Amino acid sequence: MIDARGLSCPQPVIMVANALKSGEAEYTVMVDAVTPKENVTRYAESHGYAVSVAEADGEYTLTLKK
Amino acid sequence: MTSTKKDKLIIIIAGLVIGVIAASLVLFGNPKNMGFCIACFLRDTAGGLGLHRAAPVQYIRPEIIGIVLGAMLCAFAKKEFSPRGGSAPMTRFVLAFFAMVGCLMFLGCPFRMILRLAGGDLNALVGFVGFVAGILVGVVFLKNGFSLKRTYKMNTGEGLALPIIEVIIFALLLAAPAFIFFSEEGAGPGAMHANVWISLFAGLVVGALAQRTRLCMVGGIRDVVLFKESRLLLGFAAILVAAFVTNLVLGFVNFGFTEQPVAFNDGLWNFLGLFLVGFACCLLGGCPLRQLVMSGEGNTDSAIVVIGLMVGAAFCHNFGLASSGEGPTAAGKIAVIIGIVVVAVIGAINTARKEA
To answer: Among B322, B277, B258, B22, which Cα is nearest to B123's?
Structure first.
């Protein structure tokens, strides 16, 4: 679980990039703005993860699956 | 993959449109290689409001107002307007202040750096090398965990404060009361400007396009280095190509280091000026254009950055730190060195080594 709420880019992507190094099959990332949602999605997809997004109350929960 | 390709195509088209608009504004009256310059235009606006009294550079620039409002309207339309703030505002103010010191050493923000390149000003190439070097240093801090900590949700009034101020400033431009300063004809760059409505419209379009694409000159280079992500850099390149071609058509291209408009030929200080800008803006998370756009999206930390840039510009002209076509000033050189040290200290004290 990566909590990147309130952080602006590139920090959320750096956090995800660091986490992906451990190579797990699934990650959960929380962000609260559209730009990090897009950027994390773009980064994860380019590293072989499928991304699904759930939105609630202006916050986004991204599920990254290998 | 297709969505990535589509994203790239969109930012290239947006960059091409922005490049044509920027070069065309010179035809309509803006200074050469300065269709847009966020630093110069904030500086002119600070002068128009009387925050500094440098007579050649006083004019309320509608392009700035248009960018903030265009980004805001676009953000509302896309339900992306999101008032937030509280992420180290004073630190951001100081970073912005010194980013402006760097911009006014070089005589331009990163956006104008591209437009100067597109006009054949090779001094901007030296500046570009400094800009990249500054970003690379900033990236080292980011990789080691630099953070200005998180933002929090704010109320709508807080998020609208800067856009409302921009509307009021625009009203002052139109009303032109006696306490607003305008450079007199022939006095300098401040006297050279397109029609108010053309400038405002250009700003609105650029603000909207930059909001949709998240265009950022600093982000372009940073993302390639950090993530091998070229999307933002493509926007950057598209502006360069479009502005260059438009300049060719309009006969504005003049390759060389000397006799360049509103520029000087001192490699070291062109380099160090934009080094400071790249470094400070990398820690701020975006170039001056991007800060204007984010402030239009309700980001009050970016609004503080805009105010910091304006105060920095006022100081630069009140204390003789800003360069001119003649070259840098001694005080300006000292200010740039101090700025690099201050930004490095801010970088160090906000970097927590990440746990393994």
So the answer is: B258
